[in-house]
Design brief:
With 119 residues, this protein is an alpha+beta fold. It is built from three helices and four strands; from the N terminus they run αβββαβα. It has helices at residues 5-9, 77-94, 112-118, and strands at 25-32, 52-59, 63-74, 100-105. The chain has a four-stranded antiparallel β-sheet. The longest helix is centred in the last third of the chain and has 18 residues, at 77-94. The chain is globular, with a radius of gyration of 16 Å.
């Protein structure tokens, strides 16, 4: 995607005073791809349609091999913390390993679908 100067000029400068104005958070949970030993890995996600699952080979931080990535969005940091904790606990109950937990504050994003997902 070609980035225009106008788009980047709209990115807000952040400091502690306006961090609470962020209204979009992305939650990521990264797990090993265990589909060989557990063909139904994450089949329970059908009950949580707001969570998206993808499998990606190789990760710059976590190394080679396939990883499972669970992703969702919330409007508040408190909701993000609760959502992350609940899904982590569920993954733990199923006995799957977790490699990484992450919450990102979305300050700027040109992807239009994101707005539709979190309404």
């Amino acid at each position: 995607m070609k980035k225009s100067k106008n788009q980047l000029a709209t990115v807000p400068l952040l400091d502690k005073a306006n961090l609470n104005q962020i209204n979009s958070f992305e939650i990521h949970i990264t797990c090993p791809d265990e589909r060989k030993n557990h063909p139904g890995q994450f089949s329970f996600l059908k009950h949580f349609p707001h969570w998206k699952l993808s499998y990606i080979k190789g990760d710059p931080l976590l190394g080679t091999g396939s990883k499972a990535y669970l992703t969702t969005h919330t409007k508040t940091l408190d909701a993000a913390k609760i959502t992350l904790t609940n899904m982590k606990d569920l993954i733990d109950l199923y006995g799957y390993s977790i490699l990484r937990l992450k919450i990102e504050a979305i300050v700027f994003d040109t992807k239009k679908k994101l707005t539709k997902k979190i309404k």
